[in-house]
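call fold(seq) -> tokens
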Amino acid sequence: MNTRSLKGISPVIATIVVIAVAVAISLAVAFWASGLVGTFTRFEKLEIKNSYVTREVNEYRIVVSYKNSGSSDVTLTEIFVSDKPLSQFWSTATVNETSFTQVFIPAGTDGVFSISFPDDAGVKAFVEGQTIEIKAQSSSGVYYVGTFIIP
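ret:
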């Protein structure tokens, strides 16, 4: 039997095929890893642009102007007034004119939210000159804190 009639691929072609497969696999791994990096490097950053307290007819109102400059959406899940949850501090308090559940802030957006403290049978939530701390907690556990002096 003549063994010279059997032919295989040349070493040059074999090397080119191995390099092409290695490049294809490395590109696939690189794209997969960049997707993971994008997922795990998202962050929330809520910037408070302006905030103030006003006394309106029969209520105090805290107004907060913000910008979500992070790459992730922010959901405010709890608001504390001087370290007490909002509903325990003042049961009739509202956020954006409704009872507070959550405030959703998409990434890259600006906005305003307000917290109202209506008088309760003539009793005010605060005393003029009082310093209060408002702390908003996000769903990821980050706290955004502001200190206010009541006019």
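Residues 54 and 61 are 5 Å apart (CA to CA).
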